[in-house]
Write a structure and sequence with these properties.
The chain has about 290 residues and is α/β, with parallel strands linked by helices. The protein contains ten helices and twelve strands. Helix 5 links the parallel strand 7 and strand 8. The structure holds NADP nicotinamide-adenine-dinucleotide phosphate (NAP).
Length: about 290
Amino acid sequence: MLKFAIIGDPVAHSLSPLMHSSFYDYYRIDADYNAILVKPNDLKEFLQNLRDSDYLGINVTIPHKESVIPFLDAVSKEAQTIGAVNCILRRNGKLIGYNTDMSGFEASLPVSMYGEKTVIIGAGGAARSILTACINAGSQQIVIFNRTPEKAEKLRTEFSGKFPHTVLKAYALADPILKSELSQASLLINATSSGMEPDSDERLPLRPEDLHQGIFVYDVVYTPPTTDLIKIAIQAGVSYLNGLDMLIHQGLESLKIWLNHELPFQKSLIKRTKSELMSKLLDNNS
Ligand code: NAP
């Protein structure tokens, strides 16, 4: 039996074990997938032990996607550019880091949806992947807002060096300029854990009247499926998507890397997995 897991802190909310078991069932793979709580101070030791373990692959979630990099033996070029790893392959006792959040995000959003100006809230691992996807898709101006403005500025400086043809701006999330930047944007992406259970009391500083009719709202959070931001999008009457599609696509991409072969892309698998995950989320909320 193949062994996989997700590490994070917290990780109990993760839908990845259920999602991967749906993949194994569909593709008839004999495998097991666990959620393992790894505290930041234990990350180095966990990865050291992982080298000699029988795990073939590991997914990485909050808060380790950036801090994991120095402890790996190699990192894919794409993950290096992004500066975040969410998928680790163990091969011959070596740990190789990949990023499948970016391709998961790309697979979930048609290129036509990106438009000229994008507002991204967040400056962590998810924001790095999404920022790279938006640049690859041709967004000409991207405005980053983050609770900790220094992190937004650091990301802006780093990515301006890597992608000099894209105009990048960075502000504190509390900066009132958010409203005017939103009024010119065609895409708003929440790449923070704000609104994620069990801390869903911490709200983003947004109201329905801040969203104009042409904007598309993408919340990478999926617990709960109707996040506060999505409630705001519904009240504003604009189109929206939660993070479930991205989650499923990044999971399939991780599985391909671990198995080292293509998996036939099946719309029916995506549909079935999404409905299983939705049922689980609705059960959790009832
Ligand atoms: P991370 O690296 O730890 O970054 C967390 C980000 O969220 C930081 O920008 C942080 O701001 C911000 N943040 C946290 N709490 C906040 C609050 N109450 N108000 C405003 N900002 C807050 O985490 P990550 O890996 O980027 O993940 C971020 C979120 O994306 C998580 O909810 C994760 O589950 C989700 N995600 C979803 C998918 C998917 O497939 N759907 C994939 C990846 C991630 P500071 O810098 O100020 O701390």
